[in-house]
Amino acid sequence: MTDTIYALLAIAMVLLVVSVLVPFAERFRLPHTVLLAIAGMGMGFLGSWILAVDMKLGALGDAFVGLDKLEVGTDVFLPLFLPPLLFTAGLTIDVRRLLDEIHAVLLLAIVAVLVCIACVAGVVHLATGIDIVVCLLLGAVVSTTDPAAVIGIFRDVGAPKRLSILAEGESLLNDAVAIAAFGLFIGILVSRSSGDPLTAEIASDPTGAIAVFLREFVGGLLLGFIMARGAMVILPRLGESDAAIASVTVSLCYLSFVLADRYLHVSGVVSVVMAALTMAAYGPTHLHPRQWTA
Fold first, then answer.
1. How far is Cα 30 from Cα 24, in angstroms, rounded to an integer?
2. Which of 159, 176, 170 minimizes the C-alpha distance to 102?
3. Contact 273, 82 (CB under 8 A)
4. Is the CB of residue 250 less than 8 Å from the CB of residue 237?
5. N or C: which end of the chain has fewer CB within 10 A?
6. b/e map of 147-165 (b: 16 or more CB within 10 Å)?
């Protein structure tokens, strides 16, 4: 049996588990993200055990073999799955309510995250003596949490709208800040051994790292806004073709990320988030209702 068949069986098994668990979580009012995470870990442990004892289970066993062979690195995983996840989250948020609370959201998503990164890095550096840039990289990894389960609970129990907006806005933007910071610190570490100009810029000016971060963040905001406005020029000319509308929307999602990250060297995450927020803000008033709901 070829690796392709193994991979197809693994993907089919995962999709089947997801399709069963999501309505199960909704039925019993459980956070579906937590349930899916537990199911994923359970499938991983079960698959390892089945492969270790060489248990013959037919197609089910081959599906676990495919799951073991299905290795997706970060170089594929992030560009493939991150843009649509961020874009969907940005489209579903109430932008006008978000703008009303923008000062609190920015304080939580940017200032608090950067302070947390600095605190984690400082403590780890003092305790271990590890290079401060490596410590900052660790801080960027652990400084943000995913409140998806909390937001789901807020919606189920009818929490105040302001609280939900703060949680949703903070969760959307703090990921962008943390990933932008992570990319910056990775770039610094890589550039040390490659002689990249980024190192000289940061070494010559103590505020160089802040300048690079702001350049990536603001550049991502501008690119995302321009890309979304360009898409809204194209969408009204597509009529009511669902396939064409979906194609442009998916293209906007991935193009915003790839152009920013690969070609313009600004934050692709910030670009995708900004494109989604721009579509959410201007879409209902600038697009035909069928195009917006599609």
1. 8
2. 170
3. no
4. no
5. N
6. bbebbbebeeeeeeeeebb
Say if CB 267 and CB 261 are below 8 A apart.
yes
Which residue type does 76 have? Answer: V
Backbone angles phi, psi at 240, to 5 degrees: -115, 30
End-to-end CA distance of the chain: 40
Q: What's the pLDDT tens digit per position in 141-171?
A: 888 766 555 666 666 667 777 777 887 778 7
Query: Is the pLDDT confidence value at 294 over 50?
Result: no
* Residue 2: partners with Cβ closer than 8 Å, 6 or more residues away: none
**Better-predicted residue by pLDDT, 63 or 33:** 63
Q: What's the one-letter identity of residue 232? A: M
Region of residue 239 (phi > 0: left; psi between -120 and 50: alpha; otherwise: beta): left
Mean pLDDT computed over every residue of the chain: 79
One-letter amino acid for residue 113 of the chain: V
Reported as a single tens digit per residue, the pLDDT across 211-265 is: 777 788 889 899 999 999 998 888 777 777 777 777 888 899 999 999 998 898 8
Q: What share of the chain is helix, strand, coil (3-state, %, to 5)?
A: 85, 0, 15
| Amino acid letter, 160 | P
Burial of 231 (0-12, 13-18, 19+ CB in 10 A): buried
pLDDT digits (tens, 9 = 90+) for 169-209: 787 778 777 877 887 788 777 777 666 555 555 544 546 66
| Cα angle, residue 230 at apex, residues 225 and 235 outer, rounded to 5° | 125
